[in-house]
Design goal:
Layout (H helix, E strand, L loop, with lengths): L2 E3 L10 E7 L2 E6 L4 E6 L5 E8 L13 H8 L10 H7 L3 E6 L4 E8 L2 H16 L5 H18 L3 H13 L13 H6 L2 H11 L5 E7 L3 H12 L23 E2 L9 E9 L6 H13 L5 H7 L6 E6 L6 E9 L5 H13 L8 H18 L3 H14 L4 H11 L2 H11 L5 E3 L19 H5 L18 H7 L1 E5 L2 E7 L6 E9 L10 H10 L9 H10 L3 E7 L2 E9 L3 H13 L5 H18 L3 H12 L14 H10 L2 H11 L5 E7 L3 H12 L22 E5 L6 E9 L8 H12 L6 H9 L6 E6 L7 E9 L4 H18 L3 H19 L2 H13 L4 H12 L3 H11 L6 E6 L7
Parallel strand pairs: 4-8, 9-13, 15-19, 20-24
Antiparallel strand pairs: 1-2, 2-3, 3-4, 5-7, 5-8, 6-7, 10-12, 10-13, 11-12, 14-15, 16-18, 16-19, 17-18, 21-23, 21-24, 22-23
Helix pairs in contact: 1-4, 3-8, 9-12, 9-14, 9-15, 10-11, 17-31, 18-24, 20-25, 21-23, 26-29, 26-31, 26-32, 27-28
Length: 896
């Protein structure tokens, strides 16, 4: 039964109507048309405010492509009551962003759960809904930033190929236009057009406000009414969009020729709307065909060395869209053979029917991802934007329910219906005498579809845990037996989720000599098969345990990091143990892995950002070739990869892997006593032949350099500056350096560098700075970076040096310092609230014999910093004259 909730007794006050509650998400509406979704989650120490407007690039007119995205940028420039939004976001320590897609635009902020922060966020979003400046001066600077973002996309052959296929697949519909827009439209759109677009679509009756996290429903609704209730419902009528493409009547093809290290072949097929009943079966079909290592494309192309990487993308859109398949092909492979194999796999399903095993595997993986996402209210609140954009938020649940019911017959039917040659857009044209037609059914009536939907039982909610350093320290449990250390923080979590992070220390300076690529390949091979399970079986077993994660490596370790549930954690630990201790190193997988890494290296070798960072790190490093801390050039890396054999990997594994040095971090919902004992029992007998000795990476004093790298035919350039620092996280100057870095290049577009290079000069879409300090190693580094068009790179460098010099000469202000300290510490707490990060931190702290109380002492020192402190440290370490620089881009073309 619907109820009416009146939050103010005045006769003309705004009213909030309670609509329904589904699986913990409650829907309300204001009488001005605003839809409100509340998702309380006591287990979070944060709140996410996400507002979704049902407007995107689909709603743009001729000459206005990219306008929805450009407007998204302008709404960060300020409004009547919130004149400097980016500064406010930085001051509140918020993680924030805005995104634009075909049918929707959304803005979100995640911040520490306080009444003051929630008041600020709702006040800001209500004000910029109708009172944003949308000013000519902001358009003048932001246009070049968006154009730079456009140019960055031009560097990616895959991204351009997707755009070209979309524009070829759609004759009339705006889905054929990229959301970023045409360069000419970005450069020439009138401010009046943007203002009219803003006034038409940015209104309460075209918006959904989602608030998730640690909230009180009644108090939150009162605040929503306070800030949004005063906005009047507009009198305008939104236009109806009725353009529909005709049924495709033949194969279409495009060819893209640009500089790059890899070939790509892609095929796209028209499919129904994301709310159509066929979409769930198409989603499962895309997984069956496109997943690795279980998918048919992986088996028919990747394993046969006709491709290095394959994937599929079922784009959920409000109206008929595309099911997209992609294969990356090595430069030395005959792409025609790869194309034939791709089409044979996709369009020959009638002869090789979909099996029940394939469907159940794909469903298990997809439903696992959905279920784990529900453990994080922040993710769900943002993910809802996609379903709101295509029709209704309840489709998130309906689509999940449909996936649960998908059968092999359903998948076979949609494959036969849509994956046909006449419905295909490819990189070639193939005429046919007997054309086939794929009739794309239009979206059903959304109101009838969702009417009466109730959803499933609400999952467990978890506890309200305030992730302060003191609280974590009080709850942390440490235990050590032999070479195994365990640090754990039990927390009752939403959905009983838990994260585990296991690090295995490897070898010593001598045993790791000339072994960087061997180490890398060994770590990557661990999940590609063991004595009991194949790569495919391993993936199936992790999926059945609702576990997701992976294994990575560092100079002297490998790390397994996984998320699962309380019930499944013991089996996940046992499976991780099996993966680490019984690797079999199948030759087929090893050859495939090497081919993939060499192909990726080929791609990186033409990418400005990858080249710039590689050159910078190589120049900043004085360790000799072969040392485990040596920073390899791309050429050195290629030679090492090519020369590494399977026997090298097997020998390295046999000699260096064992339990002589293992650290484990666990955070979330679990039985500590049993898990603690299980880890010691399972890992204590695993021994390595070579004794582990942790090697310290030392500070390196290098000569200054300023280098330029040519990257032909790349429309975007990359600038990076850095210097080595002889100090650790524990050093007395470290607190000031963290705050200085935030003031120079951190926060949300409100730092010294961002304000100058992006906000004022409009030269770069992405600009910032970051600091790397270790608790054990003594190789600290400061970095600053910016992307830009090649013709603006010298301007970026000049602006960088000027801003660094200004900070060096004039210092920082008390206002800058105060807001940066507050934002930095708030951001640190938000990060700690993520149990994935907490598990990693627990493990890392124990390995370094460091405690959360020591971290609190460092944060206390940050709070006590004075302007004199930060100015002294700035002048001690970060003179612009001490910065080395690398620039990569297509600079030669500027001279033509």
């Amino acid at each position: 039964m619907l109820s009416l909730l009146v939050l103010c007794s005045a006769a003309n006050a705004a009213k909030i109507k309670e609509i329904q509650t589904i699986e913990g998400i409650s829907e309300y509406s204001l009488d001005n048309g605003l839809q409100i979704l509340l998702f309380p989650d006591e287990s979070k120490d944060t709140i996410t405010v996400n507002i979704t407007y049902q407007v995107g690039s689909k709603h743009e007119n001729y000459g206005e492509t990219g306008m929805a995205h450009l407007l998204e940028h302008l709404l960060f420039k300020g409004s009547k009551k919130h004149k400097n939004i980016t500064k406010e976001m930085t001051d509140h320590g918020a993680q924030a962003n805005g995104t634009t897609w075909y049918e929707r635009t959304n803005y979100y902020e995640t911040f520490k759960a306080t009444e003051e922060n929630l008041n600020w966020a709702l006040s800001m979003e209500a004000d910029r809904m109708v009172n944003s400046f949308v000013a000519q001066k902001d358009l003048d600077s932001e246009m070049t930033v968006v154009r730079n973002e456009f140019e960055r996309g031009e560097n990616s052959p895959v991204q351009i190929l997707i755009q070209r296929i979309y524009s070829s697949a759609f004759d009339w519909h705006n889905y054929g236009n990229s959301t970023i827009g045409a360069r000419s439209d970005i450069e020439n759109v009138k401010i009046e057009n943007l203002r009219n677009f803003y006034k038409k679509y940015y209104q309460p009756d075209n918006a959904t406000l989602t608030i998730a996290g640690k909230i009180d429903k009644d108090k939150t609704l009162k605040l929503v009414k306070k800030y949004f209730g005063k906005i009047k419902k507009p009198s305008r009528t939104l236009p109806e969009f009725y353009t529909v493409d005709q049924v495709q009547d033949g194969e279409r093809s495009i060819t893209l020729r640009r500089v790059g290290g890899e070939q790509v072949v892609a095929a796209a097929y028209k499919i129904p709307s994301g709310i159509h009943e066929d979409f769930a079966a198409l989603d499962i079909l895309s997984s069956i065909l496109g997943d690795s290592p279980t998918g048919r494309l992986h088996k028919n192309l990747t394993e046969k060395q006709l491709a290095t990487v394959t994937w599929a993308w079922p784009n959920q859109q409000k109206e008929p869209g595309l099911l997209y398949f992609n294969a990356t092909v090595d430069a030395n492979t005959d792409i025609e053979k790869s194309t034939s194999a791709l089409l044979e796999t996709l369009e020959n399903i009638a002869q090789k029917p979909i099996t029940n095993k394939e469907v159940e595997r794909a469903k298990r993986k997809t439903l696992k991802q959905i279920e784990l996402a529900f453990n994080d209210s922040q993710k769900i609140s943002i993910n809802l934007s996609e379903w709101i954009g295509i029709g209704d938020w309840r489709m998130l649940f309906i689509n999940r329910d449909r996936i649960e019911k998908v059968t092999a017959e359903d998948v076979q039917r949609v494959a036969k219906k849509y994956l046909i040659s006449s419905n295909r857009t490819l990189g070639q044209f193939l005429p046919t005498k007997e054309p086939e037609r794929a009739i794309i059914t239009q979206a059903p009536n959304i109101e009838e579809l969702v009417e009466g939907y109730k959803g499933k039982k609400v999952i467990s909610q978890g506890e309200a845990f305030d992730a302060t350093l003191e609280n974590i320290s009080k709850r942390e449990i440490r235990n050590k037996q032999g070479g195994i250390k365990i640090s754990a923080v039990p927390i009752k979590t939403r959905g009983e989720s838990v994260f585990i992070n296991i690090r295995v220390g490897l070898g010593n300076e001598n045993s790791l000599q000339n072994k960087s690529s061997v180490h890398e390949l060994t770590a990557a091979m661990l999940l590609r098969g063991n004595k009991r399970l194949s790569r495919e079986d391993l993936q199936d077993e992790f999926d059945s345990l609702k576990a997701q994660g992976g294994i990575g490596h560092n100079a002297q370790s490998i790390t397994a990091s996984y998320e699962t549930t309380r019930e499944n954690l013991p089996k996940v630990i046992a499976l991780i143990h099996e993966v680490l201790t019984t690797a079999s190193f199948p030759e087929k997988e090893f050859n495939l892995l090497k081919a993939q890494k060499l192909s990726k290296l080929s791609s990186d070798s033409t990418d400005p950002q990858a080249l710039a960072f590689n050159k910078l790190l190589s120049n900043l490093n004085t360790y000799p070739v072969g040392h485990m801390y040596h920073a390899e050039t791309f050429d050195e890396y290629r030679q090492a990869l090519e020369s590494t054999t399977l026997e090298d990997v097997k020998s390295f594994y046999k000699e260096n892997f064992g339990s002589m040095n293992i650290q484990v971090g666990v955070a979330g919902d679990f039985d500590y006593k049993n898990i603690n004992q299980q880890i010691f029992d399972q890992f204590s007998d695993w021994k390595s032949q070579i004794k582990y000795k942790r090697e310290k990476e030392l500070f390196q004093d290098v000569e200054l350099f300023n280098e330029k790298i040519e990257t032909p035919d790349k429309k975007n350039s990359f600038f990076v500056a850095a210097r080595n620092l002889d100090l650790t996280h524990k050093h007395e100057d470290a607190p000031a350096l963290y705050v200085i870095t935030r003031m120079l290049g951190g926060g949300f577009l409100n730092s010294r560098l961002a304000s100058r290079i992006r906000q004022k000069d409009g030269l770069s879409y992405g600009v910032g700075a970051f600091l790397r300090l270790d608790r054990f190693n003594e190789n600290g580094r400061f970095f600053a970076y910016a992307i830009s068009a090649p013709q603006n790179t010298e301007k970026v460098e000049k602006a960088f040096k000027e801003e660094m010099q200004r900070a060096y000469d004039e210092g920082f202000t008390q206002q800058e310092l105060s807001s940066s300290i507050e934002g930095l510490l708030d951001q640190a707490k938000i990060t700690r609230s993520d149990n994935r990060v907490l598990a990693q931190t627990l493990r890392s702290f124990y390995n370094d014999e460091f405690t959360f109380i020591q971290e609190k002492e460092i944060q206390d020192k940050i709070r006590q910093l004075t302007v004199e402190d930060v100015n002294r440290v700035m002048r001690k370490y970060l003179s612009p004259k001490t910065m080395s620089i690398v620039k990569a881009g297509d600079f030669a073309s500027l001279k033509e």
